[in-house]
Amino acid sequence: MLDLFFTVTRLARNALRVFSCLLLAFYLSVILLQVFFRYVLNDSLFWSEEVVRYSLVWGVMLGSALVAYDRGHIKIDVIEAFLPPGGQRVVQFIANALSLSFCLILLWAGWTFVERTWFQNSASLGVPMRSVYLAIPIGAALEAWFTIAARLQAREPSTAESEALL
Questions:
Q1: CA pair distance 41, 123, nearest whole angstrom
Q2: For the segment 115-139, what is each residue's pLDDT rounded down to a tens digit?
Q3: Is the entire prediction scored with pTM above 0.85?
Q4: H or E segment at 135?
Q5: Structural contact between residues 154 and 2, judged by C-beta atoms closer than 8 angstroms
């Protein structure tokens, strides 16, 4: 059963990495298109800033989940370095428990926010704001899932994995 959990987690992580790379390429394309229109054609795309901003919200929330899987979030490990292995495990457990708690609180608060803004639309495009704000609970849920998976696998942070794009 745990093998199935790890397999599904690995597949979800890989799909999320591909999606994140495509989203980054999308940002770049829209920004370059806006620059071209503004400085070459002397015109402006009214929708580009809003699309990039909302896409960035999704990119940050999904990217945070990927970083959680690789255990790459910023941490202060001065105390942990001076502890024996048993103490280090306790500190890591507490850090993971706090991270998971934060993710669950963010999931709840994000869903509450989505419910409050369910009928709002964006200013220039008329995009339902729920589609933008859904990034918060979805990203928090994915981060909680990947935090649990990383803890169960007792993974060590890997710089080679976090530096690779795919």
A1: 25
A2: 999 999 988 888 999 999 999 999 9
A3: no
A4: helix 135-153
A5: no
Give the type of residue at 17.
R
Measured over all CA atoms, what is the biggest interatomic distance in the chain, rounded to whole angstroms? 64
Q: Could you tell me the residue ranges of all domains in the chain?
A: 2-163
Separation of alpha carbons 22 and 109, rounded Å: 28
CA angle 61, 62, 66 (to 5 degrees): 120
